[in-house]
Amino acid sequence: MKFVFIDAEKESFPVSLMCRLLEVSRSGYYRWATARDRPDLRLKSDEPKLRREIRKIHRGSHGAYGRPRIHAVLRARGWKVSAKRIARLLTDEGLRGRGRRARRRTEIAQVEEPSPNLLARNFAVAAPNRVWVGDIKQEVIAGRTWYIAIVLDLYGRVVVGSHVSPRMDASLVTQALRKALDTRNPEPGALMFHSDQGIQYRSQRFRLVLRVNVITQSMSRAGKCHDNATMESFNATLEVECLRRQPLQSGQELRTVLRKFLTFYNHRRLHSSLGYQSPMKFEALTRKPATR
Predict the structure, then answer these.
(1) Mapping DSSP to helix (H, G, I), strand (E, B) and coil, where does residue 150 land?
(2) Residues whose CB is less than 8 angstroms from the CB of residue 108 and which lie 6 or more positions away in sequence, other chains included
(3) Cα 218 from chain centre
(4) In terms of pTM, does the model score above 0.85?
(5) pLDDT, tens digit, 9 for 90 and up, residues 220-260
(6) What span, in angstroms and rounded, lies between the C-alpha atoms of 203 and 193?
(7) CA dist., res. 190 & res. 187, Å (int)
C-alpha cells in the first residue's frame, strides 16, 4: 500500500524522500514498479476467444456479473484461467458488475493515529504563518453533496487556502493545504496546523505534505469542537453570509460563489475581533518580522 501511495504522489514529491518518510526502501519500490509495469510477453492465442466469452457472459447477466461470477461461469465451462486475468480483461473491455459497491479501503488503510492537542485553545497568535487551522464543511446542491476544505491563518483570520470537491477524501484537505503553502510560503519549522481528528487530516497523504514542509500537526480532542473555535466561527459566517444567500445549482456555481465571498471576506469584511478591520488590513497594519 505504501508503494501505491508513493507511485500516486511521485509527480509532487521525490521518490527518495517519500521512501525515507514512509520507512520503505527505494530499491523495493522500483522493483515493485518494474514488476507492475512489465508487459506480459507470453503470447495468449486464446485471448480473443476468451474476451468474446467474457462479453457474452456479461451481456447474458444484463450487466450484473463482475469478476467473481464471470470467473465461476468460465471455470464451469472448462476454462483454466485465473481470476486476476479475468479482472484485467474486464478492465480492458470497460466492463464491471452492478453488485453492491464495496467500501473503499485505500483511505482507511493509510490513516494514522491522532496528533496531540498542541494548540490547547491558545488562539492568540503573535504573527502570521505561525498557526493555521482547517476544517471541512459540506453543502448539498441538487441532491449531491459537495465538500469545502478551508485553511485559516489564526493571526489575522485570513483564509489562505480552500478547495471544493464532491469527494471527502485526503485529496480535499491536501489540495487546500497546498494552495495555502503556495500563497504564503511559511518558514519551515515555524508553522503549526490544527484541525479535528478527521481521517482526512490523519491520512498519510496529508501528513506527508506536513512533513515535507516541516509543519507541526495539532488536533482537537475527540468531541471537543471548541478546541477549534475560530474555525467553527468562520464556518458559521460562511453559512449565513455566503451559502444561504441564494440557492446554488451546481458545484461550479459553488466554487464561483465561494471564491467571490473569500475575496470579500479577506479584503473587505469587517471583523469584530480585529477591531472592525478586514483580515488583510489588520495583518498589513500589525504584521511584524516573524520570530521563532
Answers:
(1) strand
(2) 199
(3) 18
(4) no
(5) 999 898 999 999 999 999 999 999 887 888 999 999 999 99
(6) 14
(7) 6
